[in-house]
Records
---
Amino acid sequence: MGVLPTRVYGNSRYNDDTDAAALTAVPPYAYGGTAYDDSDIPLSEGAAALMQLVSDFGYGYDAEQNVFYTEIDAWQRRYGYCSLYDEGTAISGMILDCEPIYFIYNGQVYMIELWKGQYDLTAGCEVGIYRDSGRKLLGTEWFETVPDDELLDMSMSLYRGGEHLFTRAQRHWWLTGFKLGEFVKPKDLTLAVRIRFCNQTMADAFLDAIRAVGYAEDEAFTDGDVVSVYFTKSKQRQPLTRRSPWITVPTQWKNKLMCKSFQAIVGGEDKNVYEILAEAKENYPDVYDEAIKISRRMEPYTKRMGDMPGIEDLLSD
């Protein structure tokens, strides 16, 4: 597929050839073109308890990049997508830029959405693919997640100016990454995405749709059945809650304070969760032990996340 062209943002340059390599990587995830799996890392009791909670909520953890990500079988898959979800992000503590792209392929309406920004205590991004279900949620079109035979090979790299924050790649329906303790402003982020579609016809349909909302030739282009997109500034009107300074300003103030407090606790270093827990066990043993007890008491409830009622009762034709 070759190497993507070098891009210039401000006074910084980066070359995202890692995306081209990562797109061919195998699960669970990859970065820099190299598959990485930390499943054999011996965990302390505290780390094991935390990772169990993370897993129960539908997430995994990449210790090398200090990034949380969604599992392919996460319970959230049953809830699909609705534009009301985007309206709810800001009031839920997440200040994001979003870019939904609707297109038709083989008689079916699909939607691929890109997100980037501040997710409470993490900086992150998402790429999701959904298809029209023909049903509505509270009067709004509801899209179901694509089935396993329609998953797409995707890779994404998140940059702040010329600073590379992380890269994720996997065959997925909802590729995500959330870097712990990092504070960002959505407008300062660039999300470089590569998606391999099932064929060039589908790739061209998506390219036509993203061009229609305003992406230039150097922001979205194809290489056979692969589409590359550079998402820096949203081309479409953002959700009402996202546009309201009465919501975004205090929410970002809260997010920044959380990240500053977190960095003060960990000493301002980019430590992963395992390292943080090891230091907590050594320096604050009482707090560490109490945290383990709390996490153990939560397990009976978090393990039921996958048993939560579905959304079917709320849908209408």
Note: Residues 81 and 143 are 5 Å apart (CA to CA).
---
Amino acid sequence: MGKLLERLERLDRRKLVYTSFVLGLLVVGFQITDRLIIEGQTKVEDSSEGLTFQSVNKLSTTPMGRFSVAVRDDGDLHPDGIADSSFKRPTNTPLANTSAGLLELWKAGQTAFGQYVTGVPFTVETGRELAANPLLDYAFLNLEQDYNINSALDLAEGLRSGAGSGTEDPAMDLLVRIPPMSEAGVETSRERVNELLAMGADGVVFPHVRSAEEARMAVSFFEGVNVWSPTNPEGDIVVMLMLETPDVFAELEEIANIPNYSALACGIGSLTRAMGGDREAAEKLNLEVLAHSQRVGLADMITANTESVARRVNQGFLGLLVYGPTANEVIRLGRAAAGR
């Protein structure tokens, strides 16, 4: 308060009275839930703005809005009063250009960008490198071909140590894709889910789901777990199912209607190969998955490159995976398309 008075004491009495009046209105209007930052310009002739006020949400320091009051050369307030205003009520939706976790972005309807972690050493150092990239919202560890819990443990340790001192939380969410249940078996898949959750993974991805029955089995592994889903927006674990064979699409609607999981996606690369290289037909099925995901409130995820990322954002995919030397460029293009 002392600094505030120091900045205002050079203004004449009329300005001080008006400032006090405006402050009173703002405090009453926002029910003392906000703190105010005031920028008082003491040299009126240097600017036509005069006094500028900014309200900041006290919990997140997110700017709620600002307005300007013009001051005439004679020191009086401009007769038109407030020259510009953008005050809005605070909401729980994070600003589009701020860093947030995967689920925070999904709750806000924002696209999240993740690193497809494959073809690299699954080490602590790789985790640290991922943690050092401010563009990433999550990491997608691919253990489909060679499942090893130590790979997940090492990467998670790197994500934690790379987050900076004084925190045990990782720098970003970690999703782990396990081998298909049709190859590993039900009990082995269940054990892998349990050990991944025990080591702190934020989500598990099931590739090559072949039927609605298999999808229900995968979801049943998470009984008692706080899974994020359309009916549980406060959940903190991601369960994702991937459809990658042509026959399973006969049960697409049924699979989308299964409760208590987070994301439904089409593995378009595998599906294209299974359809003899017919990318156009595979894309049609991919968009059918997207439509059903959006219908029930599930997230959908797909890989993206520099040519496709803006289109995928505009189509409504909430999770985009990047990889290779152009990964950061893809994210920047995607963030621009998403308004982040």
Note: The first strand starts at residue 34 and ends at 40.
---
Amino acid sequence: MRSGEAGGSDQNMYTKEQLAVHEVFRKQLEHTEVRNLLDPLTGLVARPGMVALARDWIAQGKPFAYAILDLDNFKFINDTYGHRTGDEVLVELAGSLQEYLADDGIAGRFGGDEFLILVPGLKTYDERKGYFQAMYNSQLVIRRNIRLDDCQPFVTGTMGCAGFPENAQDYNALFTLMDKALYRGKIKGRNCLIVYLEEKHKHIEIQRIARQGMFTTMNSLLRAFEMVQGCRNRLQSVTPFLMDTLRVSDLYYMGTDHVLHSVRDGALSVPVQDIENLNWMNDHLYYTNKVDELQERCPGFYGAMKDMEVEALMALRIMLDAREYGILLLAEPRTQRIWQEDECALMFFLAKLMAYRLKLDGETLS
């Protein structure tokens, strides 16, 4: 395990000597060049090689941890800085991952912005948790700024991990459990590590918004919204749907008086007049997973969020024809959640529904 400064080198790719310590690679290298086993961009082991190595260890009965690392919001990096910068981030992170693992294990690229990690000898949940949590806490691989020539994007990642033979006895079952753990991390809000534990994760069903389709999701939200009359009743109707779909704990709202209310806790009533000082995106949306950035611009709102132990926040103005009717908020305690584009889109849709209904019915949220 490496312990120096984070950052890859110009020569990140695995060498023939490094791969040849594994029998499955040694046999392949008798008939092919090492570059044919590697991902051409990052120099890590290509996906087929990682699968072959995992299957070989299973055949040998060799205990190991199998992990998948998915970078958070990598599309934002590509869209903001360009795909060339995105490639540079992948190369830099791959080098850091390879250096961190050193002789402990081996890293590969699964595809896109996902990486595979194999670490032999981690037999128990506690060993797997301890090893990968140390990697997260070190901030040598992820949870750090990637220093490039013209920018320094901050990169986080979500990781799922399972172990052979404790969790599964064949490759397909092991990969499924690792994928379940990754999915659990994503619905928790990303930027976290989940190590598979049967009593906690056995019954997880992978049902992403993307799989059921945004149209279906929005249509379900619309049906819940239209089931009842009155805007506060409508918010109560859609909250269980949002809690299940977005894995959030509550829905918050305020009218033009800027007094914060909770759908689930009817007693909550907190004045936050300076919320208008948020750095709104396109005058409608604000989100963060670091509420400390609110302290200077919105000290009153920041104090309310800290009292509620909120770390991840999304706020959307309820607006129509340049008129503001209030604000919807998702405020998640004790989690550095990474808000996704489809989640923002769903909440934007709800805010527009609210604005239209408030205008038609002549209601207010104040």
Note: Residues 1-10 have pLDDT under 50 and may be disordered.
---
Amino acid sequence: MPVRKTRQRAAWAAGLILALGMGLGAQPTVAAPAVYGPIAQGDSLWSVVRKTGGGNVQQRMQALFNANPTAFVNGDINRLKVGAVLNLEAAAPGATAAATPPAKVAVGSAPKAAVQGVVSTPAAAPTAPQAVTPAPVAAGAAAATPSAAALAPPVPPAGAPAGEVIKLVGRASAANDEGDIRALQQGNPVNSGETVVTAPASFVRMKLSDGGYIVLRPSTRFQIAEYRYTESSTDSRSVFNLLKGGFRAVTGAIGKRNHSAVSYKTAVATIGIRGTDVEVADCSSGCPDLSITPKPGLYFKIWDGTATVDGKPFAKDQAGYVPPAGGDPRPLAFEDPASPLNQDPTPPADPDKCF
């Protein structure tokens, strides 16, 4: 074959390969969802993350919380504002720290075309792929300063250990957000994100990794909503939700180092601590485990230290009551016989003081 024709065919083949490569490289990718909203009643940050992509759920929850600070009630990661619209870009699976801060999304107002759920924004015009060659680093040169995101403390994954069961009387179980349920036995771990449930006539005592203790009453549902214990007092946090029943708790190192890092939430009030031994029973919808039928509402006693109930301070040997509809906490006598906590007290959380 003549050399000229061979070169022509080789050039034609090379041109075809280049054209195909450019055509494939120019195919636009589907843009990741940009926003989610408006938030509906019953939505949680966990459910939003699960609906909008994969990746590490806890890390994406934290990224969404950081990127949308005005979308949460009183800065509480567990309470999304109804009507808010979340910027998802900062929490996209595999996303890295952006060179510029993400665009702010107005809370309470959604784009006109938005509907409840994921709202996509148009993808940018595709550009030809560019090869990037990393700049060489001279021997002995100082390493680049890590970004703020790289320095941020890691968020524990769902299921990270929070403590263990050290005493069990009767039966108890733990359920995670996936709906998996396991029976608890003495020595079993309890994890961040799990809800611990006690059966009738059953008690469970848990020791947390920071040295705190919690005892759950019979017929109780108690969620370890968020638990993170590190060497840094500003990075550690424990948030608990009393969904039903009652408990008694002694603060561990997290609360002793940073009082605002620990809270116990109920349907009618939030209890903050100041180095506290606190006892709580939520009888807003009845307390079938009690030997009496108390007036519906939330009852609490401060055995040691101080606490706040919806911001109102209570000291050692003080007690109170919150109506089932909420409102200002009302003081009660510490030994008031009308309080179910005096008729049927919860065992002390500290094992040195009880069963």
Note: The two ends are 98 Å apart (CA to CA).
